[in-house]
């Protein structure tokens, strides 16, 4: 039956095309460009596979190796270092908390500096924005490598690294929140004779506070993840142990550490989702599990 | 013109004031409780993270002097006085930077493709089987939660040092993050086109291809571009554990105190990331315009 419909349609295709020329024209116009774009991206992809050495033979033998590793990971076991690993996990959480708070404190004044409606000076605005962009672009791990040179190996360098890279991102978000803040409260404070500082305190801060709080929580969540890997370069926390256990091929302990991280991250996510929902007053944040 | 406000008598005002005081007090108690909790957590973390402000102050000089050294050639001159000497490895670093971008590109493309499959399979409106959805959701969650650099660490052991483990690590992590986002996008589509395709006898695949994809394609593209930006940064640091790209060169330069090399590589990386960000932002805005213009 459907075959029959298809034959009927094909027979009258030209007539249909003529009748709905306008609709079909719009579609075929961009088609050449689309095909060319897809061809180029596919070509780059294939070149990438070739250039990066993604050969089937290598993939296959590596997958076999990976299977052996996964088999060796079971069952996960702390190998008698449970206390040490729990302490390292605590350190990771400490790094995330201190780092986030430092970034939060630093980002507020810079957020105001980078906001166009607070600081009218164009030059200052552009310099602050570019500076923040630069700070934000440098990855947490690279910041950790830099801070290790300053304060030495250890969790303090990790906390400073997290604070540095987040400070740029958070300040940018805050400046955007400040720029989109409602003008009316600001004008009300000005009209009743409030100075610059009063305008900021009572006109803008109450508006951005919920955004600020929920962003901080969100950053804390993502920082727990970053803090787990920051130990790889020697900046404290559970990452150092994970790195070492993988390097000495102690797979059972490595998988135990990964499990610890997974459970902790899930727990922190849950708590922070609740808190964020309480702050913004929306209940549908954690709808999907 | 003066106006007088009629102030109600005390016996009317008192209950109102009391109620106000009560509600404010309740709020204040919650805030104070939260503040105490936070302070306790900070105090604990202060010890846990071995924060030592004294050393911080004494060593803060190191921070400025470190940047000072970064901007110094080994001849002692400032880097910008001799850019050719500063960027002596330009060719080699450019190639590695290109490899980094390529790792991010291949990883993102692979991850996005798998992510679309994962997103479709976790959508309540397309897949009836709750068991299948649950299974795929957990797999995506695992891929998302394990950081890409941890995947890279393991893959370097399994596949050997080089770009391949980097690509795989980024692809796997991207599958997790994008799969979740795509799933959310697909769950919120208009079901009428899908029903239309189903009504004309289209198979499940045809429904997805002609009913779902046209609705979500621009969203998928813009999320993928955003992820590509993130993955370029990720690919740059993934080299630290031996998974190819510029990160390998950077960590060697940092560990061996080749200061001017560090600053040259960092600068190239910064410029590259910023250019890619700007390009992808423009593309994303265009996609957004397409979305709203439809």
Q: Which tags fit this structure?
A:
heterodimer, A: 289 residues, mainly alpha, MetI-like fold, 2 domains, B: mainly alpha, 3 domains, 11 helices, extended
Give unreliable regions of chain B as ranges: none
* Helix content class of chain B: over 70%
Total beta-strand segments of chain B: 0
The CATH class of the largest domain in chain B: Mainly Alpha
What structural class results from the helix and strand content of chain A?
mainly alpha
**CATH architecture annotation name of the largest domain in chain B:** Orthogonal Bundle
CATH superfamily caption of the largest domain in chain A: MetI-like
Biggest interface and which pair forms it? Answer: A-B, 64 and 63 residues
Looking at CATH, which topology of the largest domain in chain A would you report?
Answer: MetI-like fold
Topology:
The complex is a heterodimer of chains A (289) and B (294).
Chain A: H1 2-11, H2 13-19, H3 21-29, H4 31-51, H5 56-73, H6 82-113, H7 122-137, H8 140-151, H9 155-179, H10 183-191, H11 196-229, H12 238-247, H13 251-280
Helix pairs in contact in A: 5-13, 6-9, 6-11, 7-9, 8-9, 9-11, 10-11, 11-13, 12-13
Chain B: H1 10-48, H2 53-70, H3 83-86, H4 90-121, H5 130-145, H6 148-159, H7 163-187, H8 192-199, H9 204-238, H10 246-255, H11 259-293
Helix pairs in contact in B: 4-7, 4-9, 5-7, 6-7, 7-9, 8-9, 9-11, 10-11
Description:
The complex is a heterodimer of chains A (289) and B (294). Chain A contains 13 helices and no strands. With 289 residues, chain A is mostly helical. Mean pLDDT of chain A is 83; it is low at 282-289. In chain B, helix 8 (192-199) packs across helix 9 (204-238). In chain B, 80% of the residues lie in helices and 0% in strands. Chain B is mostly helical. Chains A and B meet through helix 4, helix 5, helix 6, helix 7 and helix 8 of A and helix 1, helix 2, helix 4, helix 5 and helix 6 of B.
């Amino acid at each position: 039956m459907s075959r029959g419909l298809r034959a009927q349609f094909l027979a009258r295709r030209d007539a249909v095309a003529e009748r709905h020329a306008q609709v079909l024209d719009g579609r075929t116009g961009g088609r050449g460009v689309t095909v060319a774009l897809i061809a180029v991206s596919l070509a780059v992809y294939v070149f990438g596979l070739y250039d990066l050495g993604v050969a089937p033979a290598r993939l296959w033998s590596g997958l076999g190796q990976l299977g052996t590793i996964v088999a060796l990971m079971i069952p996960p076991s702390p190998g008698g270092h449970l206390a040490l690993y729990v302490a390292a996990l605590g350190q990771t959480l400490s790094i995330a908390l201190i780092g986030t708070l430092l970034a939060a404190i630093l980002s507020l004044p810079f957020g105001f500096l980078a906001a166009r409606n607070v600081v009218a000076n164009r030059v200052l605005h552009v310099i602050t924005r570019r500076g923040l962009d630069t700070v934000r672009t440098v990855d947490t791990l690279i910041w950790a490598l830099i801070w290790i040179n300053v304060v030495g190996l250890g969790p303090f360098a990790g906390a400073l690294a997290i604070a540095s890279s987040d400070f740029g991102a958070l300040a940018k978000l805050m400046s955007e929140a400040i720029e989109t803040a409602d003008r009316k409260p600001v004008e009300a404070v000005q009209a009743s004779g409030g100075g610059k500082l009063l305008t900021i305190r009572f006109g803008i801060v109450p508006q951005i506070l919920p955004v600020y709080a929920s962003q901080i929580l969100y950053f804390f969540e993502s920082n727990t993840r970053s803090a787990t890997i920051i130990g790889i370069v020697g900046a404290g926390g559970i990452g150092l142990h994970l790195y070492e256990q993988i390097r000495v091929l102690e797979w059972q302990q490595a998988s135990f550490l990964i499990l610890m991280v997974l459970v902790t991250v899930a727990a922190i996510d849950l708590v922070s989702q609740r808190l964020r929902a309480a702050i913004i007053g929306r209940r549908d944040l954690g709808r999907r599990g | 013109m003066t106006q007088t406000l009629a102030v109600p008598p005390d016996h009317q005002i008192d209950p109102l004031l009391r109620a106000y005081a009560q509600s404010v007090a309740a709020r204040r108690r919650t805030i104070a409780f939260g503040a105490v909790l936070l302070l306790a957590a900070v105090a604990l973390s202060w010890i846990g993270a071995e924060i030592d402000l004294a050393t911080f102050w004494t060593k803060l000089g190191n921070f400025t002097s470190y940047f000072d050294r970064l901007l110094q050639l080994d001849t002692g001159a400032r880097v910008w006085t001799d850019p050719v000497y500063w960027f002596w490895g330009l060719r080699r670093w450019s190639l590695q930077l290109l490899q980094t971008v390529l790792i991010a590109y291949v990883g993102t493309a692979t991850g996005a493709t798998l992510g679309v499959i994962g997103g479709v399979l976790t959508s309540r409106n397309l897949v009836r089987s709750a068991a299948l959805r649950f299974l795929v959701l957990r797999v995506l969650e695992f891929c998302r939660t394990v950081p890409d650099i941890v995947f890279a660490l393991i893959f370097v052991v399994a596949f050997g040092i080089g770009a391949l483990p980097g690509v795989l690590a980024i692809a796997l992590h991207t599958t997790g993050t994008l799969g979740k986002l795509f799933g959310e996008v697909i769950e919120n589509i208009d079901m009428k086109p899908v029903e239309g395709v189903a009504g004309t006898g289209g198979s499940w695949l045809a429904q997805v291809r002609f009913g779902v994809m046209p609705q979500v394609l621009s969203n998928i593209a813009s999320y993928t571009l955003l992820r590509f930006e993130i993955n370029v940064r990720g690919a740059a640091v993934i080299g630290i554990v031996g998974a190819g790209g510029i990160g390998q060169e950077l960590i060697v330069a940092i560990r061996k105190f080749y200061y001017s090399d560090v600053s040259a590589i960092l600068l190239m990386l910064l410029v590259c990331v910023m250019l890619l960000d700007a390009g992808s932002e423009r593309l994303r805005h265009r996609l957004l315009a397409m979305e709203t213009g439809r």
